[in-house]
């Protein structure tokens, strides 16, 4: 028996080791191909989609280091700029996916490559920023499709931890971070059955919901009390004993005071209404709804509450009798009601498909202009980084890409990407495999 156990442990270690070797090999092959270039660039003769100020035909954008130096039609280009003739091309601000696990998850079946989940229900002190893998194979695959920055967040438990907003270029989390602590992720306790397989009675479902909500409120109230206690000590430390340090409660301080928002993942109509009612009990905090597959059913209520929504389009309708178009129509119906929407795939390796989520939304009611905002400026505004990202404006961070057409169309080619002023190599694991096998030198008979 002991020999069998030792054999199993050895095989398990061997599989894990081989998987890690594979991850390392793929990461090196996909990430370290050629160096990004940095300096001064002049993009000329482009159709510039500024997002914030319309479209500029035959325009010029000057990039100086990390920032955009000039946007317009006439500029004297001084010596020292590398010129890129973009005649017939389109220049867009880099796209943002507002909800992913990119950089946290690599191979789902290999635990040691997954950092998107932690043990326990309440982990506000967990920071995705500290676990980002800059060499993730999925990062180059994503950025060469025009997605230059993302929200990456933990997903387990009730309070999963702090999401981070990162650029998709850099050699360390510090060099990638736009906002290390961008939001706290909350998985809303559901008051409805999970699906046809859920054999709980309605009474049991409601009882479990009330229990989970009570625990959530207890944790939140404790955080409020702890914050007041610490503030009181800071003001009167000569007359009070220093309170015991609690890392989880400390992590809640910037949340309950409204310095960073709470992303509430919620889908069903009933749960959305419950979440809205809960947010109204905490007027000092900021909240964002994510998922909201039933959002179109309660769009007016979401708009009245002033809550922005992070939405996708490529999912199965909530109910068997829902029209297949509902997921595609959801962003447009929310926008029509007055809700600010941003695109969020909720994915890892398929974050590269974020432009097509926006494309479906554009086609099914949101419109191309608003869909473009949903994947650029709206997302930046929701997370408070509109002064850096989301549009092509002087002084903003140079996250841009050049395409030969509409980036919402799968046949469009993304020809060049800039992230924080770096001209990124247009190479990924996908392009390497294509090059390897397109002309593989098969022997002729």
TrEMBL record:
Taxonomy, superkingdom: Bacteria
Query: Sorted alphabetically, which SUPFAM superfamilies does this protein's record hold?
Result: Composite domain of metallo-dependent hydrolases, Metallo-dependent hydrolases
- Which intervals hold domain Amidohydrolase-related? 331-414
What InterPro entries does the database record attribute to this sequence? Amidohydro-rel, Metal-dep_hydrolase_composite, Metal_Hydrolase, Metallo-dep_Hydrolase
Q: What is this protein called?
A: Amidohydrolase family protein
């Amino acid at each position: 028996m002991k020999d069998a156990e030792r054999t199993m442990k050895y095989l398990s270690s061997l599989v894990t080791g081989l998987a890690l070797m594979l991850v390392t090999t793929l990461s090196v092959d996909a990430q370290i191909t050629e160096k990004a270039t940095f300096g001064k660039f002049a993009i000329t003769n482009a159709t510039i989609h500024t997002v914030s100020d319309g479209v500029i035909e035959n325009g010029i954008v000057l990039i100086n280091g990390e920032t955009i130096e000039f946007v317009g039609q006439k500029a004297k280009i001084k010596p020292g700029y590398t010129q890129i003739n973009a005649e017939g091309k389109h220049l867009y601000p880099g796209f943002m996916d507002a909800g992913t696990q990119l950089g946290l998850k690599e191979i789902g079946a290999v635990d040691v490559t997954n950092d998107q989940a932690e043990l326990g229900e309440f982990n506000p002190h967990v920071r995705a920023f500290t676990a980002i893998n800059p060499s993730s194979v999925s990062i180059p695959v994503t950025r060469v499709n025009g997605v230059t920055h993302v929200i990456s967040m933990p997903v387990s438990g009730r309070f999963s931890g702090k999401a981070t907003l990162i650029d998709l270029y850099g050699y360390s989390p510090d060099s990638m971070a736009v906002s290390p602590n961008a939001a706290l992720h909350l998985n809303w306790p559901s008051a409805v059955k999970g699906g046809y397989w859920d054999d709980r009675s309605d009474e049991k479902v409601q009882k479990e919901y009330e229990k989970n909500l009570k625990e959530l409120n207890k944790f939140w109230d404790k955080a409020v009390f702890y914050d007041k206690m610490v503030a009181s000590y800071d003001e009167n430390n000569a007359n009070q004993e220093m309170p015991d340090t609690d890392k989880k409660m400390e992590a809640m301080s910037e949340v309950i005071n409204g310095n960073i928002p709470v992303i509430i993942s919620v889908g069903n109509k009933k749960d959305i209404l419950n979440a809205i009612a809960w947010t109204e009990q905490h007027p000092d905090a900021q909240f964002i709804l994510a998922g909201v597959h039933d959002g179109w059913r309660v769009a007016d209520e979401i708009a009245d509450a002033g809550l922005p929504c992070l939405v996708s389009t490529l999912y199965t309708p909530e109910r068997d009798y829902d029209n297949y178009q509902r997921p595609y129509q959801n962003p447009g119906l929310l926008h029509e009601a007055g809700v600010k929407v941003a695109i969020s795939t909720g994915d890892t390796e398929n974050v590269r498909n974020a432009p097509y989520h926006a494309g479906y939304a554009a086609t099914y009611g949101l419109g191309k202009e608003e869909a473009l905002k949903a994947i650029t400026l709206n997302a930046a505004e929701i997370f408070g980084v509109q002064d850096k990202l989301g549009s092509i404006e002087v002084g903003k961070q140079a996250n841009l890409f050049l395409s030969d057409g509409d980036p919402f169309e799968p046949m469009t080619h993304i020809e060049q990407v800039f992230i924080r002023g770096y001209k990124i190599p247009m190479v990924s694991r996908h392009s390497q495999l294509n090059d390897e096998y397109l002309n593989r030198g098969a022997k002729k008979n």
